[in-house]
């Protein structure tokens, strides 16, 4: 979950920037990123854009707000520093669409991780001023929530709908209770049934009247209307129920030997069924549905013993970790290119102003009039001397071409990362389910147990 708030900066932009990029708050500025500006000189670079806009006729560029400051705060313990910083950059990119310079700084000095995003009030593309309004803030919140969902974080739920009468609320609750009970009983009967006919028989013995046809429907004793199974969700269509029954059915390998992990799962469930209290507990926490899903997955992916399941989970984890490393390396190179481009560009833009100092008579007055340019020039010069000691600067068009290529590669890697994260999460959940159903000691025993073809 992330909470956002925004306010304009009317004075002291330099102080605001210095505060958000403070070394102690940002892990020695490792969690600071600037877009089309260097975090340390961003206040002056914002000013350069305003001056340029003013020269080109945007007379309002130097008036009004200097910048805007957005704070994005996360729930304590819900997100790590690097992920929070990445979310802050993506939020700034989506909100500002590449039109405004910005600085993102992630603070880690409090009990909760939070991002500070400060952006120029004047666009560097069309010199238009940023329009902050209730609708633009709502859009920021919407994008922030969307990113939180994408990264698996919680989201603040919208207020519940208002205006329902007492009768409508009562009917709604009653309908949900019928559906919840039906779901629970279907889950129980899927696990116990060996085939479709036995499933229907078990449902009837539970007290349901069944209407078969194009869409199977059930009606409990005391219920006025039938409930179509498909209205319970996509997992409860007749096709899916049949599939779950096939998956939960005890399998045979064809050579007289049963698949051990599936037998053990069914045995664990039967042991619970022998105890009424134990079985009610299982049904309450939806372990029956979990067991059916687990068996389906193991069957579909041919993971017939615990060792294969554990190896598959470790393999997916290794692939996912390597993709993470590659993405971080790519991001570091992109960030370095951004710094190179910005500092070379700043150096070339301000060099003519600084060189002109030797021609003017009143040097102090000239320096006061061009303070911004002198500060930006000196910062860019220090960067160039440190990173290009030979003095030979690369062409900006070549750096930008490499940057575009790497950003495209990063997008491709991120799509791969999302797919692998989903796949890894799925198999890890299945392994947790197996450990829950069979007990964590089961895996330890399986790893110690030798296979028949192993040498003594």
Strand line-up in the sheet with most strands: 1-3-5-4-2
Largest sheet: 5 strands, antiparallel
Q: Which parts are unreliable, with pLDDT below 50 for 5 consecutive residues or more? A: 158-162, 164-174, 248-259, 450-456
CATH architecture of the largest domain: 2-Layer Sandwich
Q: What is this structure, in a nutshell?
A:
The protein contains 15 helices and eight strands. By secondary structure, the protein is α+β, with helices and mostly antiparallel strands.
Write the layout of secondary structure elements.
Elements: E1 2-9, H1 13-20, E2 32-35, H2 42-55, E3 67-74, H3 81-96, E4 102-107, E5 114-120, H4 134-150, H5 166-192, H6 196-205, E6 208-211, E7 217-220, E8 227-228, H7 238-248, H8 260-273, H9 276-284, H10 287-300, H11 306-355, H12 363-369, H13 371-387, H14 396-438, H15 440-448
Antiparallel strand pairs: 1-3, 2-4, 3-5, 4-5, 6-7, 7-8
Highlighted features:
58% helix, BirA Bifunctional Protein, domain 2, 456 residues, 3 domains, disordered C terminus, alpha+beta
Give structural notes:
The protein has 456 residues and is an alpha+beta fold. It has three domains: 2-150, BirA Bifunctional Protein, domain 2 (2-Layer Sandwich); 166-304, no CATH class; 312-440. The protein is built from 15 helices and eight strands. It has helices spanning 13-20, 42-55, 81-96, 134-150, 166-192, 196-205, 238-248, 260-273, 276-284, 287-300, 306-355, 363-369, 371-387, 396-438, 440-448; strands at 2-9, 32-35, 67-74, 102-107, 114-120, 208-211, 217-220, 227-228. It has a five-stranded antiparallel sheet, with helices on both faces. The chain has a three-stranded antiparallel sheet with strand order 6-7-8. A hairpin with a 5-residue loop joins β6 and β7. The radius of gyration is 31 Å and the shape is elongated.
């Amino acid at each position: 979950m992330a909470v956002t708030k925004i306010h304009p900066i009317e004075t002291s932009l330099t102080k605001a920037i210095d505060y958000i990029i403070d070394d102690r708050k940002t892990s020695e500025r490792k969690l600071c990123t600037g877009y089309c500006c260097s975090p340390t000189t961003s206040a002056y670079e914002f000013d350069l854009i305003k001056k340029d806009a003013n020269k080109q006729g945007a007379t309002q560029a130097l008036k009004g707000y200097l910048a805007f400051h957005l704070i994005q705060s996360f729930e304590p313990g819900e997100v790590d520093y690097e992920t929070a910083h990445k979310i802050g950059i993506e939020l700034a990119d989506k909100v500002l669409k590449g039109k405004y310079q910005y600085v993102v700084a992630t603070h880690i000095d409090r009990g909760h991780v939070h991002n500070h995003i400060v952006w120029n009030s004047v666009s560097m593309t069309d010199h238009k001023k940023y329009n902050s309004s209730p609708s633009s803030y709502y859009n920021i919140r919407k994008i922030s929530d969307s990113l939180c969902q994408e990264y698996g974080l919680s989201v603040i739920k919208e207020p519940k709908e208002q205006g329902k009468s007492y009768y409508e609320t009562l009917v709604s609750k009653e309908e949900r209770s019928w559906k919840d009970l039906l779901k629970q009983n279907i889950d129980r009967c899927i696990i116990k049934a060996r085939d479709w006919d036995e499933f229907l028989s078990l449902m009837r013995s539970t007290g349901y009247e069944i209407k078969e046809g194009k869409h199977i429907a059930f009606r409990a004793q005391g219920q006025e209307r039938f409930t179509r199974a498909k209205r319970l969700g996509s997992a409860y269509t007749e096709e899916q129920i049949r599939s779950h029954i096939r998956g939960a059915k005890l399998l045979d390998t064809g050579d007289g030997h049963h698949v051990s992990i599936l037998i053990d799962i069914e045995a664990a469930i039967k042991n619970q069924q022998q105890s009424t209290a134990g079985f009610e507990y299982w049904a309450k926490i939806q372990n029956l549905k979990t067991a059916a899903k687990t068996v389906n997955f193991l069957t579909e992916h041919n993971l017939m013993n615990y060792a294969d399941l554990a190896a598959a989970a470790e393999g997916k984890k290794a692939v996912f970790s390597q993709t993470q490393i590659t993405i971080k390396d790519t991001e570091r190179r992109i960030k370095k290119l951004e710094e190179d481009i910005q500092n070379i560009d700043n150096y070339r833009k301000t060099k003519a102003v600084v060189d002109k100092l030797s021609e003017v008579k009143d040097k102090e007055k000239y320096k006061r009039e061009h303070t911004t340019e002198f500060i930006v020039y000196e910062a860019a010069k220090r960067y160039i001397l440190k990173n290009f000691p030979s003095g030979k600067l690369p062409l900006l068009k070549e750096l930008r071409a490499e940057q575009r290529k790497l950003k495209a590669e990063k997008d491709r890697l991120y799509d791969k990362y999302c797919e692998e994260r989903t796949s890894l999460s799925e198999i890890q959940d299945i392994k947790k389910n197996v450990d829950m159903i069979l007990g964590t000691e089961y895996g330890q025993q399986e790893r110690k147990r030798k296979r028949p073809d192993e040498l003594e």
